[in-house]
Each structure stands twice: as structure tokens, then as C-alpha cells.
């Protein structure tokens, strides 16, 4: 092992000794608080490598898209919730102690769930490593919610005993994949033609249809190694990972924020309208042309109008910024930011009950779009186009889980969607799906 990784091992030994001493102190306290957080300075060379080395589940990763954002890697669970009502109650019980829950929700709570993920799952991790520009910490969470104190402390010690230092990520050589698209191209074209028929558009002006691309192979890459390579190519995206079982890991580099909340201040966005950056002859697309394009602008305005309509009853102030173009490695997106001030009664559970799925991933009107999707799509979206992020009493941020990959021992499932509106052409929308998975396909060595 190199000196660099040996330093990580020494740092872990030092941190563990400190935390065990702190656990002794908590054990001897006459009446510890309901939630106890123990924190120590730490050193880790590479967060995805640290996660890859751990055996504890769940394993979670989160980093916001803003430069300088804190990156979080978490393992184990001090507490879990499986509904938004449970999340609301857990945050209310946390008092003044900082407690970050990490997790997400599915695109459609009534749809088919991915095994291990469910419709909603948020975790107060047992252990969290947080890396910022000026420090790195390792935190241990204890939750005394009726559990005997000695048992909770014993569980914490057991978790610490299973932590290991980071190791270099496994090398992966691009290999042959067998590709399966659901739906296939012919079926997709029929869907688009059905959705764009005049009588259909009169009832459903926009529906977002998705495709699952399954890449089967004998030895898929480590999901955490793939995430590390992917996030290097997408620095301006949200980076996330969730592994609840040994079979499946969700990773994503998403360009879209669902919302960010700081106390009562809220920021959301309408991200809809897409062009590839490169077209015939390899010339660069003109971003002003995307701003001027009626089809894409109309699609974006539907999303913005729906978000503002849903937020209006929850806010005391709301405004929308002018449209702008978001530049990604393979694509341009149209975005309008939405800024609001929440009423005092609104919490994260209320926001998650209200906002998703937005028309950027579902359609307009929502109920008819969901009915169309449930009737046509045979693959399980699961957490694709749902939401994932970090929630606490004071600040929360969630991304829409786009540009994602579900990795297991049999291969990789990629999902992509396209907004179908008046003027949508089946072949062009199929090509857009390929553009949206192009970055991860390139990482896998697939042209």
C-alpha cells in the first residue's frame, strides 16, 4: 500500500480511538440527549474509494453542484424512515442537534419499486464523512428513541469496528456489453405518434416518456469507481449514490435541482428543453437559437408554470428569473430559476408531497401524464426521475435523479426521458435519449 493510503489508515485509527473515548463519556452521562452527534477531524484521500472499501450498508454519497460544496459519504443507519410523515416526525424530534438525513423518493409512489429502494427511504447515517474546502470530519450519530442506552452505544461501537480505510479503486477495462432497449425503437415511435395526435394533445399537451437501456455483461465496473470517473466529467452536476443492498447501486450525475431550502428561503428550477451540443459537421450549436426556439421554450414554460402554481399556496413571495442555457458536455438545456419564501408552516415533507414529479419528468397535467406513463411504460422507473438529496431542519437540497445508472452484478441499467409535445418527431426524440446517456456510455467504452 502506498504512503498516501497508509496515511488514511493512520487517520482512521486516530479517529476511532477518539470516538471510542467519546462513547465512554456518553455511556457515563446520566441522561444523554435524544440525538447525539460525535465528530472528529479526519483525513481521507478519496471519498468514493472510501465508500467502495466499506462493507456496511447502506452506503450513500451526496455532493451539490455548486463549486466548493461539501461532499458527504455515509455508511450504516442510526435511523431510517420509509414515508414522508415519518421523516417529518424524525426531524421534529431532532431538536437543535444537527441531523442530516440522506435518501430519496421514487418517480411514482404507485409504480413498481426497485428492490431495496421502495417508494421513499431516508437514512440518518451511523457514520458520515464530510469533506469541505478547509476541513474533513468523521461523525458518529446515536439516536436514543426508546432504545436502551447501552444497546445503542454497543451498536455504534460495532459500526466503528467494521470501518476500514480507503483503498485504491479497482481498475476496470472496457468490455463488451449486450444492449437491450425497453421500449424498442418501433414501439417508441408508436408512443410518440400516439401522444402527438391532435386529440391526445388536446388532453395531454406534454408527457415525458422514458426508455430503459440495459447493458448486460459478465463483470460490470464498481459503481463507486464509475461514479468517480463520471463526476470528473460532470463537475457542474449533482453527484449522488445510494446502495441499500449488495445487489443494486444507484449512481447519478444530475443537472437538475428539485429544490434547495435554507430556513424559509427556497430555490427551485424549470429545466426542460434540450439540444445536443454537436450536430452534423461537428459545428457547435448556437445557444441563442435554443433560447429562441419556440418548441423548447414552450416546453420549459409549462414546467415553470406548474412549479410556480404548486409553490404559490406554500409561499409569501415568488419570482422567476429569465431563461438561461445550461451547458453540459453533450447537451444544452433551457433553465428558468424559481425563487420563493416559504410560509412558516411548510417543511420538506410538504415540499416533497407537492413538487415532484414536475412536468420536466412527468408531464402536464400531472394526473393524465402519470396515467399515460403507467399504461405504456413496462419498465420500472423506480428512483429514476424521482428525487435524492440531503434533508435537515435548517437546510435541505435535493436533485432530480436524472443521468443515472443502476449497477448490479449482471450489468448496468441506464434511463433517459424526452418531453413529448406538439412538434415532437419520433426519431428526433429517440436520438435525444441517446444523447442523454452518451456521457456514461463513453465512460464505459461504448461508442
TrEMBL record:
Presence of keyword Cell inner membrane: no
One MF annotation (Gene Ontology) recorded for this entry: isochorismate synthase activity
EC number: 5.4.4.2
InterPro entries from the UniProt entry: ADC_synthase (IPR005801), Chorismate_C (IPR015890), IsoChor_synthase (IPR004561)
Protein keywords: Isomerase
Family matches, as Pfam families: Chorismate_bind
Domain Chorismate-utilising enzyme C-terminal, chain residue ranges per copy: 185-436
Catalyzed reactions per annotation: chorismate = isochorismate
Protein family: Belongs to the isochorismate synthase family.
PANTHER family for the chain: ISOCHORISMATE SYNTHASE ENTC
Protein name as annotated: isochorismate synthase
Organism: Halomonas dongshanensis
Amino acid at each position: 500500500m502506498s504512503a498516501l493510503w497508509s496515511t488514511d489508515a493512520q487517520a482512521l485509527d486516530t479517529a476511532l480511538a477518539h470516538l471510542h473515548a467519546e462513547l465512554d463519556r456518553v455511556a457515563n452521562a446520566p441522561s444523554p440527549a435524544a440525538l447525539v452527534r460525535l465528530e472528529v477531524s479526519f483525513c481521507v484521500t478519496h471519498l468514493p474509494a472510501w465508500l467502495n472499501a466499506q462493507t456496511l450498508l447502506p452506503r450513500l454519497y451526496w455532493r451539490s453542484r455548486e463549486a466548493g460544496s461539501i461532499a458527504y459519504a455515509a455508511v450504516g443507519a442510526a435511523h431510517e424512515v420509509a414515508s414522508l410523515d415519518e421523516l417529518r416526525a424524525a426531524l421534529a424530534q431532532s431538536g437543535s442537534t444537527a441531523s442530516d438525513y440522506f435518501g430519496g423518493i421514487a418517480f411514482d409512489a404507485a409504480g413498481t419499486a426497485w428492490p431495496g429502494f421502495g417508494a421513499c427511504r431516508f437514512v440518518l447515517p451511523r457514520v458520515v464523512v464530510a469533506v469541505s474546502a478547509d476541513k474533513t470530519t468523521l461523525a458518529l450519530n446515536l439516536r436514543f428513541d426508546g432504545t436502551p442506552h447501552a444497546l445503542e452505544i454497543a451498536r455504534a461501537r460495532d459500526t466503528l469496528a467494521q470501518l476500514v480505510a480507503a483503498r485504491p479503486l479497482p481498475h476496470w477495462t472496457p468490455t463488451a456489453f449486450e444492449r437491450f432497449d425497453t421500449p424498442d425503437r418501433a414501439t417508441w415511435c408508436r408512443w410518440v405518434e400516439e401522444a402527438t395526435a391532435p386529440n391526445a394533445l388536446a388532453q395531454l399537451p406534454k408527457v415525458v416518456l422514458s426508455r430503459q437501456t440495459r447493458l448486460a455483461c459478465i463483470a460490470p465496473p464498481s459503481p463507486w469507481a464509475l461514479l468517480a470517473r463520471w463526476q470528473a466529467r460532470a463537475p457542474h452536476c449533482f453527484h449522488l449514490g445510494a446502495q441499500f443492498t449488495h445487489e443494486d447501486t444507484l449512481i447519478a450525475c444530475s443537472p437538475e435541482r428539485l429544490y434547495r431550502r435554507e430556513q424559509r428561503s427556497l430555490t427551485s428550477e424549470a429545466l426542460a428543453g434540450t439540444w445536443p451540443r454537436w450536430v452534423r459537421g461537428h459545428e457547435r450549436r448556437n445557444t441563442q437559437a435554443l433560447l429562441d426556439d419556440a418548441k423548447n421554450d414552450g416546453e420549459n414554460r409549462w414546467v415553470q408554470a406548474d412549479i410556480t402554481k404548486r409553490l404559490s399556496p406554500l409561499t409569501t413571495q415568488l419570482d422567476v428569473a429569465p431563461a438561461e442555457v445550461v451547458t453540459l458536455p453533450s447537451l444544452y438545456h433551457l433553465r428558468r430559476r424559481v425563487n420563493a419564501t416559504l410560509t412558516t408552516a411548510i417543511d420538506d415533507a410538504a415540499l416533497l408531497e407537492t413538487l415532484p414529479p414536475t412536468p420536466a419528468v412527468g408531464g402536464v397535467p400531472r394526473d393524465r401524464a402519470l396515467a399515460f406513463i403507467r399504461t405504456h411504460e413496462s419498465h420500472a422507473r423506480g428512483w429514476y426521475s424521482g428525487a435524492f438529496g440531503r434533508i435537515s431542519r435548517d437546510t435541505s437540497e435535493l436533485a432530480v435523479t436524472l443521468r443515472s445508472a443502476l449497477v448490479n452484478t449482471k450489468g448496468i441499467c441506464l434511463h433517459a426521458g424526452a418531453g413529448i409535445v406538439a412538434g415532437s418527431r419520433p426519431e428526433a426524440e429517440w436520438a435525444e435519449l441517446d444523447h442523454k446517456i452518451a456521457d456514461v456510455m463513453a465512460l464505459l467504452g461504448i461508442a
